[in-house]
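Standup notes
- DV: blocked on the single-chain target, sequence here:
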Amino acid sequence: MTEAVRVRCPGCGRENGYAAPSFPCACGNPVTPPLDPSAEVRPVTYRTWSQSWVAVRCGACGREGEWPQPELGCGTCGTVVRVPVRPPGTGAAPGAGGVARPAFRPVTIRTGGDAVVTAALYLRWLGFPDVRRPDGAAAPSAAADLRAPGVVAHVDPSTAPVGLRAVECVWLNALTAAATGVCFSLAGYTEEARSRADELAVPLFVMDLTGAPQPVNDPAEDLVAQGA
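- DV (later): unblocked, structure below
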């Protein structure tokens, strides 16, 4: 259910509850505009085509599209206001009490390729929309890299825990690209790898067969909380 926020009418000062409507993305998942209650609410005095739409990013597939601008009519004086929406790629302001990021929709993992797809979808959900596999990428059954502006990710779908070398490699690759290095694994990490990841601030995630990545260290928790 979409979380409701309080919107103060600029005409009479009354606070009205409002929950943004959801619309279906082309991928089939619902998209809800992320409201920004900390921004100034403005009355609708006239309408233009451009002001009737806002850019919103799908939390499941990362697709950005144009969606109807949320509006609310005051129950006391009838003033119609535009409810501000956070631009794509921005997180909720601390303490703002805004609408949370939509829940990640996992994809069942049956093959190594599924693990790579899940990691890519999760990175898009975190706010990295242009995730791709570099040219000449490894076979789907083997460890693979994913890249997007601001992130370099290592995905290991094997049954062996990820070791120290993989963590250091993704950190070096990310350092070269001035990006955040992230690791995904189906089988977890060695103690040495986890310790080194904490030192280098590399976020580590584990994926189970339901396709739901889980953070396993503080840098990963911070990435989930803050987004891209």
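- Follow-up: The two ends are 24 Å apart (CA to CA).
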